[in-house]
Design brief:
Elements lengths: L1 H10 L3 E2 L2 E2 L1 E3 L8 E3 L12 E5 L5 E5 L7 E5 L8 E4 L5 E2 L8 E2 L7 E5 L8 E4 L4 E2 L9 E2 L7 E5 L8 E4 L1
Antiparallel strand pairs: 1-2, 3-4, 5-6, 7-8, 9-10, 11-12, 13-14, 15-16
Keywords: Disulfide bond, Glycoprotein, Membrane, Receptor, Repeat
Subcellular location: Membrane
Pfam families: TNFR_c6
Length: 169
């Protein structure tokens, strides 16, 4: 199949109806479409681009909206559809179609990560329940507070931010 595409590109004419041709490949459709700059795209409305197929028939198509988890790489024009890039896994997310990739929330001390940041959904953090603590906020759970042993005196209480501390008696 790759050789068919290579032959198609190698044998493509450089002009069509005395208009220059720019060839682009769309991953969601086969065969590749010819888009002719300066030809019929004037009829397309805002939010549309002109797409012509190999047979020479073309039409205005609605511009693609980047889905959740993606942000716009290049805008839609009269001759090309919008292109999108995925948000970086674990560091950025976009929770709305057509949105931008934003930095993921980082859980704080005293919280645990209920759900890791996904390209389409932000991190979900929760406070540690009573009797537990978390020093960094990066784990998926909280640690249970230590219990005083015989011959130990408590010098600080256990909170969501720190473990209980003791000194020998």
């Amino acid at each position: 199949m790759l050789s068919v595409l290579e032959n198609y590109y190698d044998n493509a004419m450089s002009t069509y109806d005395n208009q220059p041709i720019a060839l682009t490949e769309h991953f969601d459709s086969y065969p590749p479409y010819k888009i002719k700059a300066g030809y019929r795209e004037e009829s397309c409305q805002t939010g549309q681009y002109y797409q012509e197929d190999i047979n020479g028939t073309g039409m205005c198509r609605k511009c693609f909206v980047c889905p959740k988890g993606y942000m716009e790489l290049s805008p839609c024009s009269k001759t090309t559809n919008r292109s999108c890039n995925p948000c970086d896994i674990g560091t950025t997310f976009s929770d709305k179609p057509g949105g931008i990739c934003r930095n993921c929330t980082e859980c704080k001390r005293g919280q645990f990560m209920r759900r890791q940041c996904l390209p389409y959904k932000d991190t979900s953090c929760r406070k540690c329940p009573k009797g537990t603590y978390n020093l960094d906020g990066e784990s998926f759970g909280c640690k249970f507070c230590s219990v005083c042993q015989e011959h130990e005196d408590e010098i600080s209480l256990c909170t969501q931010l720190q473990n209980r501390r003791f000194i020998p008696t």
